Amino acid sequence: MMLAFARPTMVGALLPSSRALALAMAQAADGAELVVELGAGTGAITEGLVQRHPDVPMIAVELQDEMAQMLTERFPQVDVRTTSAHRVLHELRPGHARVAVVSSLPFRSLPPRWSEPTRMAIEHFLLAGAHRRLVQYTYQPRVPFDLRGGDRLHWQRGRVVWRNAPPAWVWTLAVRG
User: Fold this and answer.
1) Is 149 a residue whose pLDDT tops 90?
2) Higher model confidence: residue 27 or residue 149?
3) Which of 13, 46, 49, 68 has its CA 20 to 30 A from that of 74?
4) Number of H helices, E strands in the chain
């Protein structure tokens, strides 16, 4: 939790996500053949993903070295990468696999030098394949970030998780279909 105070713009909440939110995010990733988690942090969402999708390959992205090391030790079956989310998305070549990008990144509070390249990489990644989607949560009933890639992508609001502090809205972004 000290990271939240040391780098408040890089951390989305003071408390880890609840089990209820982790399960809602994992459920929104159903059907994926590859899961890519952005901003894995303490692993609260990672745990829900691993439990619900034990046989699905998973990549967890965490920029902070100490958190990434903890994730590696806690989830040896997950490919943990200590780098930026946009770099992983640019380098990822999943072919025709159904990919769920599951994000805990706090887009509304991230500095533009992080949020803009990541948002652009997400949009580009989703537009490159019809079977790709982003699962993102927010603490407000509005879209996690504004789209800049035209009208080919569409936000869909999913569940509200009241058993989280604060309550969270689960959103899905995918190619309009």
Assistant:
1) no
2) 27
3) 13
4) 6, 7
Torsion 113-118-123-124 (CA) sign: positive
88 close to 61: Cβ distance less than 8 angstroms:
yes
Residues 6+ apart with CB under 8 A from 124: 89, 90, 149
Q: How confident is the model at residue 150 (pLDDT cuts 50, 70, 90)?
A: confident
DSSP annotation string for 7-49: SGGG-S-SSPPPHHHHHHHHHHTTT-SEEEEES-TTSHHHHHH
Instruction: Supply the pLDDT for residue 5.
Output: 42
Give 101's strand partners.
Answer: 36, 134
Do 98 and 118 meet the contact criterion of CB atoms below 8 Å apart?
A: no
At position 175, the amino acid (one-letter code) is V
Q: Which domains does the chain have, with CATH numbers?
A: 2-175 (3.40.50.150)
CA end-to-end span of the chain: 40
Short-list 94, 97, 116, CA closest to 105: 116
pLDDT, residue 177, reads 76
